[in-house]
Design brief:
The chain contains four helices and nine strands, in the order βββαβββββααβα. By secondary structure, the protein is α+β, with helices and mostly antiparallel strands. It has a single domain, classed as OB fold (Dihydrolipoamide Acetyltransferase, E2P). The protein has a six-stranded antiparallel sheet. It has a three-stranded antiparallel sheet with strand order 4-6-7. The chain is globular. The chain starts with a strand and ends with a helix.
């Protein structure tokens, strides 16, 4: 799993060029109770670090950015009925979308778990 500075995670699936994206546990804690998720459109091409989805919580709305460039191939439709999945399981069942990467080298620009924990540790 890799992490972006804007608190998204990405998990690649074995050399298929597919990856799953969501927000980190840290991000969901900061947002509070998620009450609505605006999912991206399947088939949409997106650039790295551009808005892909929107989360609305009892505290605020927050953009979710794609950590890599590619095409959205699937969205977690369960979030439409149960947005709290992000609060309950941000880094597993609360995934937001799957993307077909156009440039796998973009993954090298993201943080590993140790680096991500370093940037969030001083914020807690």
């Amino acid at each position: 799993m890799k992490y972006s500075e804007s608190h998204e995670w990405i998990r690649t699936e074995d050399r298929t060029g597919l990856a799953t994206v969501g927000v980190t546990d840290y991000a969901q804690r900061e947002l509070g109770d998620i009450v609505y998720v605006e999912l991206p459109i399947v088939g949409k091409a997106i650039q790295a670090n551009k808005e892909a989805a929107v989360l609305e919580s009892t505290k605020a709305a927050a953009d979710v950015y794609s950590p890599v460039s590619g095409t959205i191939v699937e969205v977690n439709t369960r979030l439409s009925e149960s947005p709290e999945l992000i609060n309950n399981s941000a880094e597993n069942e609360g995934w937001i979308f799957k993307i077909k990467l156009t440039d796998a080298s973009e993954l090298d620009k993201l943080m590993d778990n140790t680096a991500y924990n370093r940037i969030t540790k001083h914020k807690t």
